[in-house]
Design goal:
Layout (H helix, E strand, L loop, with lengths): L12 E2 L2 E2 H21 L2 H7 L4 H28 L3 H19 L5 H29 L3 H28 L4 H7 L1 H11 L9 H14 L7 H14 L3 H8 L10 H24 L4 H20 L6 H33 L11 H22 L2 H15 L9
Antiparallel strand pairs: 1-2
Helix pairs in contact: 1-4, 1-5, 1-6, 1-8, 3-5, 3-15, 4-5, 4-7, 4-8, 6-12, 10-14, 10-15, 10-16, 12-14, 13-14, 13-16, 15-16
Amino acid sequence: MVDNKLCEDDQKLIFGVPVSVFIIGLVTFFTIISTEMILNILPLFTTSIGGTPLILGLIAGTSVFALYILYTLWYWMEDKFTKKKVIAVSGCLISNIAKPFIGFSPSWVYVLGLKTIECSGNCIRSTSSKEYCSRRAVDEEKALQATKVFESLGLILGSFFAFYLLFISMSYSQIIFLSIIPGSIAILLMLLLKSDANQEKNGNNVIQETQQKLEKTDNNFSRSIIIIGCLEIAGLGALFLIIRAVDYISINLIFLIPLFFLISNVIFLIFSNITLKVSKIRSQKLLVIMGLFILLISCILLAIPIGISLYSLIIIILIFTFYGFYKALVTPIIRKYISDLVAENTPRKSDKYYFLLIGFIALIKCIFIGFVYFVFSFTIAFIMVSIMIFFSIRIDRIENH
């Protein structure tokens, strides 16, 4: 149990959580707004400066690979740097400083580099911030719920701002540059956090105690890694979905794409909470299979050539709706698996180098799909994704969680 007298700041509550946890929530809120503003239009911007579906696959794959590298490096970082605030602030700076420069990229090469840096910084900020909160909050469940509320609002407002700014005819570069506003607010808020140096001794004692209790859970590691790997192989990157959506609407309605994403995010936020509750009493495996089956239907629809019409508009809205349900069913569970494996109290930290293998496989998969999309056609590309999803659904042969 974290000592609730560790810091005077933690005696002050805002909406039932310590001030430091509330600040972390605000940082998450503004960071996600800036991230979503860019993500919703990144494929459109990249193709406007000469990018291709192959390049989008490279960007998506490299970003995922960077995340899994950082999951592995996190153990080294937490051993070398005990002050989580320092790590969190560094990640926040890296992420939010890199974002606006994407808008000035003269070619896709700069987008690739800056997006990878942004994802890396965001992963560092997110992981260290959660660790910081866990050591500050007396009620970790309440702190987690508060942070999730901020994350949800950030997802919705980020997509809405991208939609509105496109609607008023702002350019992609201008919208990406404006992400510096919420990003700068996040950085300033991060600097307000109190140092967590006084909490390390207590936190380390908790870690040691939990490690001793979980030594017997090591046999679950391989199965968890296999499940995470299957879900990464079966996943469909948002970049491919966005670039395909362009074929469903006329050029003067391009501003609707962030609105589609907004619909998807709302569905994700509503039903992901239901997924977490249901997964505690029902098989997680069943929920994952349902999510993959919904994604399979979406990819089959995306593989079918279609002309621009009212019918195509309805279809793409339906596909984004399905995508939201897919994320709601799968994302919370895969996050739970990853969270359990990257937690400090997970045994055999050396085993986490398997994350590098998962990241590398995800990188190759994204590049391959992008290559097929670019060299052959979107039809063959989405058929290939459908095949991957179909075989990943055979995850039902893995025993229940």
